[in-house]
Amino acid sequence: MTNDPYTLAGEAAAALKAAAGLDTFDVALVMGSGWVPAADAIGATVAEIPFTDLPGFSAPAVAGHGGKIRVIRTDGGRHALVFLGRSHLYEGRGVDSVVHGVRTAAAAGVRTVVLTNAAGGLRPETQKVGDPVLISDHINLTGVNPITGTTFLDLTEVYSKRLRELVREIDPSLDEGVYVAFRGPTYETPAEIRMLRTLGGDMIGMSTVLEAIAAREAGLDVLGVSLVTNPGAGLAGDPLDHEEVLEVGRATATRMGELLAKVVDRL
Fold this sequence. Notes:
6 helices
């Protein structure tokens, strides 16, 4: 197996196409914690391939992540790659493992990627638990970058304004905000939450930004959607709990799936 992450992504894409019986795909969606049930509403399953059957992938270590790639045919006839789970930086496999799914999707012909996540809300005065929020920008506090060397990538518009406008045509009630990524796995302290609010953050999580950077490097259009599953530490008084994150995801899965299905067919 090659050590070059881009070559490895090409090998995984070839294996994925062979397993799915398709030459290319229209869109990829990465389902964050609690989002996996939403995949059922997107369309009919054509194939389902375990991560571990493809070069470079590992089984997710986090509850709420399914560990498979589902190939879905939407009602509009599009073929979507739905990643039921993702790798996280805190799992210790390195940044290339975190972005391998996005690079594989790009190598498989995808030109648009939808990145979803579960996030803590930094603005409880305007955000309700269970609200989806479009990501307009991000702050990368993970301490790493998926790109090395002298590749200078413009990140003025990581998350496509065109795609955000398209989603708001479907659901005008959606707000947008800035997503902040920490490495994890610890949740943030109340002092860190106060700092992030001062910096202009609106949601906090442990994923998405590294994938978004890798997607932009590959020339993909990126749509990011956070599901607010809890207020940030110190904003509500209750301890943070991963099971709470999953429960909110289950409770809103149908709405999220219906929204994503409409978005995919209009991309």
